Amino acid sequence: MYANGLDSYTMHVDDAESAPTIASIDEELGVGPPADTRDLDPETAARRYLNAMIASPEVPSISTADAETPATEYRTVRTETVPLTGSRIVKFAQYRHRIPVYGSLVTIELDEGNTLVSIGSAVGEPGDVDPVATISPADVQKVIHKDAGESAVLADPPRLYYYFDNTAEPNKWRLVYIAQNVQRHPPTDGDSPVPDIVDYLVDAHTSELVATLPRVYTATWSPDTAEALDGLDQKRELRIERDENGNRRLHDPERKVETYDLDFKKWNGPGTRLPGKDVLNPPAAWIPAAVSAHANAQEVADFLFNVLRRDGLDGMGQRLISSVNCTDMFEPSTTIWRNAAWIPMRAQMVYGQRPVNGELTSYAIAKDVVAHEITHGLTDRTAGLVYQSESGALNESYSDIFGILISNQHEPDVAQWNWEMGEDLNQTGIPLRDLSNPTRRNQPAHMDDFLVTGADNGGVHTNSGIHNKAAFNLITAKHNGQHVFTSSEVAALFYIALTQFLSSTSGFADSRRAIERAAKTLFQQNPPATRARKLAAIGDAFDAVGVSAL
Ligand SMILES: [Zn+2]
C-alpha cells in the first residue's frame, strides 16, 4: 500500500451514514456567535466547517491530527468554482509551526449558499519532529552540488516541509528542505543533453539526502506559479509558464493572460509589432510593471470566469494581452507616456509610464484602473456603447463599476470597500472618481446636474458620476440593516445588463430597465417578498439620482 503518512477522510452530505457527522458539525457550529453562511465568502464559510470538523469527535482523522500535533493550522490554498455542479471547493494546506506538511490537503465543497456538500481531508501527524532546522539553506546547496555537480542550478531557495519518508526503515516523518526545480546537467555523451529538473529533499537536521523527486518533463511551456513584487512593491501571486530549462514567462495558461514588454517602442508607430517580446525570468527578475499588469489582468480574468462565468472577454477563451513599457508616436518622449488604454483594433491593453520621484512608474500598477480599461474591452465586445454623450458616460460608468467590483473582489464586507478609482495614479492625468460621492471629484450625482458640454466627448468622464452614484446606491442598498444584494448578485446584474440588454446608444434609463429585467430572471427562485424587495432596491437606487424607468 502506498504510504504517504497522511490520514484520509471523506464525507458527502448525501451519504446515509453522514447524518451523525453533519449533526456533530452543526452542533459545533452552534457554539459561538451565529453566522448566516450565505453572507460569508466561501473561504470563511469553509473555515467555519473546518474548525467544526477539528472540534468534532465524529471526524477523528483531522481532530486527532490537531490534538496530536500542536501548533497545527490550515492555510487557504485556493477556492475554485465548478460550473458543472455549481459548487465551490475551498482547499486548505496543513501547517505545523508554520511549516507545511508535504502533500496535506483539506477540501471543503460548498453549494452556492455555502452549505456543506462534502469534505475530504488528508492530514499528517509529524509528532515530535523538531521544527527548528539545524542546517542552513547554504548547507542544502552543498549537498545538492555534491550530488549533481557544481553546475546544478537552484531555481528558488530551499523551503522547509514536514515530509513523510516512506523509504526509511521504519517509515518516519522528517523535517526537510525542499529545493524545487533544481536543474542538473548530465554529462554529454555525444547527444545533446536534455536538462534534468528535479526536486531535492535534504534532511534539515542531518544533511542526509532524503530523495530526489523528478518533475514532469515537458518539451513545451508548462503551467507553474510564482510570487513577485509588483509596481507598488506588493507581493503578487502569478500564474505563469515554465519551460524545460527553467525559463519562466508571464503567460497564464489557465485564463490565457499574457504580458509582454514593448521596450519603450511607440505602440502605434510604423513598424512596431505589438504586443512586444515575452517577459522572461531568468535572466533577471521580472520588471515590476509587468508583474502588475499580469497580476491585475489575471484578477480581471478570474473575476470574469469565477463570478460571471465568462471565459475571456469574448466568452470564448480569447487571450487577454497586455504590453508594458509603451510609448506613443504622438508624444516626443522616448520613455514617458501618460496613459493606459484598451486598443480595440488590437484587442489588447497598452500601458505607459511616468516619472514618480525620479523613477518611471507604470500605469499598470492600479488594479482598479486596469479593470476599468479592460472592461472597455468587454463593453466593446458586447453592448458597444458609443463613446460620446450619455451612452459614452454609461460606457465610462460600467468601466468604473467593474473597476470597483473587481478591485474589491477579495473583500466580502461591502462596508469595507474602497470606492475611489485611480487613487494610485493621483496627479497623473487619470481622472479620479469616487463612486460613493461623485461630487467630491467634481462629477454630478443627479440628473438635475447633468453637464451639457462639447468637451470630453460630451462629458463622458463627468456625467458617468450620475450612473456611478446609482450603482453605489444599488450595491450598498440595505433592508433591516442587511445588504439587499451580495456583491456577486450586483456583479451579475450589471454584467447581464451590459452584455445582454444594452445597445450602442443606450442611456441611463435603458440601463435601469436592463438591470431590473436582469433581476427578474436572476431572482426568479427567491421568495416573492425577497424578490420584490430587490426590485424595489434597484428602483430606489435610480430614483435617488433622478433616473426613472420611463
Ligand atoms: Zn474609461
UniProtKB/TrEMBL annotation:
<dbReference type="GO" id="GO:0046872">
    <property type="term" value="F:metal ion binding"/>
</dbReference>
<dbReference type="InterPro" id="IPR023612">
    <property type="entry name" value="Peptidase_M4"/>
</dbReference>
<protein>
    <recommendedName>
        <fullName>Neutral metalloproteinase</fullName>
        <ecNumber>3.4.24.-</ecNumber>
    </recommendedName>
</protein>
<keyword id="KW-0964">Secreted</keyword>
<dbReference type="GO" id="GO:0004222">
    <property type="term" value="F:metalloendopeptidase activity"/>
</dbReference>
<dbReference type="Pfam" id="PF01447">
    <property type="entry name" value="Peptidase_M4"/>
</dbReference>
<comment type="similarity">
    <text>Belongs to the peptidase M4 family.</text>
</comment>
<feature type="domain" description="Peptidase M4">
    <location>
        <begin position="233"/>
        <end position="379"/>
    </location>
</feature>
<dbReference type="GO" id="GO:0006508">
    <property type="term" value="P:proteolysis"/>
</dbReference>
<comment type="function">
    <text>Extracellular zinc metalloprotease.</text>
</comment>
<feature type="domain" description="Peptidase M4 C-terminal">
    <location>
        <begin position="383"/>
        <end position="547"/>
    </location>
</feature>
<dbReference type="InterPro" id="IPR011096">
    <property type="entry name" value="FTP_domain"/>
</dbReference>
<dbReference type="Pfam" id="PF02868">
    <property type="entry name" value="Peptidase_M4_C"/>
</dbReference>
<dbReference type="InterPro" id="IPR013856">
    <property type="entry name" value="Peptidase_M4_domain"/>
</dbReference>
<dbReference type="InterPro" id="IPR050728">
    <property type="entry name" value="Zinc_Metalloprotease_M4"/>
</dbReference>
<dbReference type="Pfam" id="PF07504">
    <property type="entry name" value="FTP"/>
</dbReference>
<keyword id="KW-0732">Signal</keyword>
<dbReference type="InterPro" id="IPR001570">
    <property type="entry name" value="Peptidase_M4_C_domain"/>
</dbReference>
<keyword id="KW-0482">Metalloprotease</keyword>
<keyword id="KW-0479">Metal-binding</keyword>
<dbReference type="GO" id="GO:0005576">
    <property type="term" value="C:extracellular region"/>
</dbReference>
<keyword id="KW-0378">Hydrolase</keyword>
<feature type="domain" description="FTP">
    <location>
        <begin position="73"/>
        <end position="122"/>
    </location>
</feature>
<dbReference type="InterPro" id="IPR027268">
    <property type="entry name" value="Peptidase_M4/M1_CTD_sf"/>
</dbReference>
<keyword id="KW-0645">Protease</keyword>
<keyword id="KW-0862">Zinc</keyword>
<feature type="active site" description="Proton donor">
    <location>
        <position position="461"/>
    </location>
</feature>
<feature type="active site">
    <location>
        <position position="373"/>
    </location>
</feature>
